[in-house]
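Box S2. Input/output pair 1.
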Amino acid sequence: MLAHSIAEFDDVRMLTDMGHDVFSIGAYTNPRRPGDDKRPALPGVRHHPELEALVPDQMAAKEHLPAELIEWADVIICHHYLREWIFKQWGRIRHKRVIWRTCGQSDPPLEDLMAPLRRDGLTIVRYSPAEERFFKPTGHWAGADAVIRFGKYPEDWDGWMGTGTWVANITQNMADRGEWCGLGWYKEATHELRARPAGPGSERLPGGRGTLDYADMRRYLRQSRAYAYTGTMPASYTLGLIEALMTGVPVVSIGPAAWMGPDSLFEAHELCEFWADDPAKANARLRDLLGDYDYALSVSDRQRRRAVELFDVEPIKAQWAAVLA
């Protein structure tokens, strides 16, 4: 159960490749005809029309899973809306293996709510070590059974060329969400540079490309000379950052003191070669990358190797296999 079609695509694909039979209530309820075009169909994933018929209202079904679906499943994995989708129906599902797969959306009250469920059998798989670093000292910490990062297929994200001398950013509607997505830092970091952000709402920013389909988005990343990463509160890091790093786009990240959230919860800057709280310093590094292709190429190579070490789906499959066993 997810509320993010890109993460859903990744997880359904990965778990199926591991040999599991997966049914997802979301964009990939019918994997041959996804309900969101941000990612392609998954024709190799088994379609369960009989289960699909049980969830015509997906939000209602997530809040109260049909009894037949609970009976069908061995494991229930949930990323989002734990209050509504897990806590409220815990008594109906606790006899199954239930996994909270964190995705950068937790908060102290949710940690407090989930702690007794973990003592009652809930498995918690964290997506970033920064979650423990931040939550545990506050006393609001439900615990962890494993830390497993998001998995990506490296062959999907490669081939960086950097022929487009612009600064990229794939925004989650930064124009509307403002400082939650680091808008002020971004504007200063790209001041007087050729910036071409993409994604929903980006057309309202200078040089914005608008929403790109999957093929155009991958081509855009391969062509971009540099990438200004702004963070998204409260996520320690995002899928967009992983995809940029694995493509090989040299990334300049916002620093932990400049994003909207707590310093210790932020991890994205630790994944990048260069970061800056001061947007003027970020601007200078972006300017260097735009002006020196050989330098950008060296950064690209180092960052991509690091990203593959952390996010390659093959070792992450093995980590999931250990948890599911």
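Box S3. Input/output pair 2.
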Amino acid sequence: MCPLYEGLPAIIYSGLWTLKLFRKLAKAFPKPIEITYLLIDTPPGFLVKIKDGNFDIEMLENVKNVEDLDKIQCDGYLALTTETLYKGPMAIREGIEQGSVKIKNMESITLIAKLTGGI
């Protein structure tokens, strides 16, 4: 495991590392995927890459606000506050409906759901 991450990157890293350790990462994510996440109140954003049973997390120092997300080449992104994330799926859905959560491609939510047992 990597001790260099904090917060959401650390949580996602730990979940992916566990899946990889038990050789379940390729089954959970059979197709390559690149998703960018930005917790609006704690930038910078980060990019999660999963391919061929392996993964990488890259901190994106140039992604500090929602407008920066459109400049990143990726399959999808999710930008929300830490509070919305921790309130769970209903709060995220409400945020999408109200426009306070910016999302491109539902896979960005699916990745988190798979790691937390939501799917």
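Caption for Box S3: The CA atoms of residues 4 and 85 lie 22 Å apart. The helical segments are 7-21, 25-28, 82-87, 89-98, 107-116.
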